[in-house]
Amino acid sequence: MKIAVIGDIAAGGFSDPAPLDWCERLSRPAASPHRHLQQLWDNVKGVNRLDRIKLVQVGLGPIGIAAVAEAMRRRNLDLLGGIDVDPALEGKDVGVLVGGEPSGRVVRSDLPSALAEWKPQAAVLTTVSQVERLASTVETLVSRGVNVVSSSEELLVAARRAPEAAARLDRLAKETGVSVVAAGVNPGFMMDLLPVFLTAMCRRVEKVQMWRCQDAGKRRVSLQRKVGAGLSAEAFRAGEAEGWIGHKGLQESLALLCEGLGWQPERLEETLEPILADIPLKTKFAQIAPGDVAGVHHIGRAWKGTRLLAELDLRMYVGAERSYDRVCIEGDPPIDVTMEGGIPGDGATVAALLNAVPLVVHATPGLLSPLSLPIPRGMGV
Description:
Layout lengths: L2 E6 L8 H11 L9 H8 L8 E6 L3 H12 L3 E7 L10 H4 L9 E2 L2 H8 L3 E4 L5 H13 L3 E4 L7 H4 L1 H14 L2 E4 L10 H6 L5 E12 L5 H6 L6 H10 L7 H11 L6 E10 L4 E2 L4 E2 L4 E12 L2 E11 L6 E9 L2 E6 L4 H17 L4 E2 L14
Parallel strand pairs: 2-3, 2-5, 3-4, 5-6, 6-7, 7-16, 8-13
Antiparallel strand pairs: 1-9, 8-14, 9-12, 10-11, 12-13, 14-15
Helix pairs in contact: 3-13, 6-8
């Protein structure tokens, strides 16, 4: 089994400066969940109003297209159009793109000119995961007074991996009076916010464990590629080394979970293993022979000394007989919650993004943690 140690203060520090900065921040009094209370109080105001929010969709991949279709349906959102760098989409009607009737709302490829023409209040951004690659787009939006909800996994706890970019985005958002936040299913809810929320009923919390199992054969092609479906074990390890195999955001979920509970972990670690098929498997996108990769088994753990604070166990593979999400809280009282069938990632990601739009529009300015926002809820559905 391969173990990647994300951080180890006791052994002399993290392997890179960004996690060290994050863990040092957790060790200070400001790392208490109470540091979010004033922001949270401020951000509750106005959230439940169903004002129509002028919205643009930036990025028209599968999730972006699904977000467009859902946004057009919602009574609290006024979708102005879509923006994508693909010149082939320029001028196309977004209603037609999502399989419906012409809507009169079109796609633009030039972000600044589209923002100048449409003057949106908020943007849903579904392009890339990495904060460093995403930062210039966020800066363009924020500098023009647009609030941002992004699907970027790294943006959830941006200071961990990109402290300089995170500080720059936070400063710019405060200067222009808008807010930026990441939202999603995992990370963003299932393995971080949900366990934190469930501990509201506990007098004491010793440990949190979360299991998530999904049948990758029922998910979109990009996810099947991400879990390595159909690869040999050797090709899986090569993809892992290149950084494109495996779930994105497990570190962020651990970080957010620990921060939400006021825990100060000394070490975070990850393991990533292929799940190999024992029978022939087939999806719309892959043929999987016995012995080839069906998916991934990805585990993240947070430690304080020899005490295991949290363990997140994710399995996504083709042919999973049972999909489910389970949260187990060792505490007083103990809590054990299982959701049979699990929360489907694609549709729920769209819901998480759009449900966050009213929260971010009414939030205090800055690059915000989801912990600083009111409890997510279905808004305008």
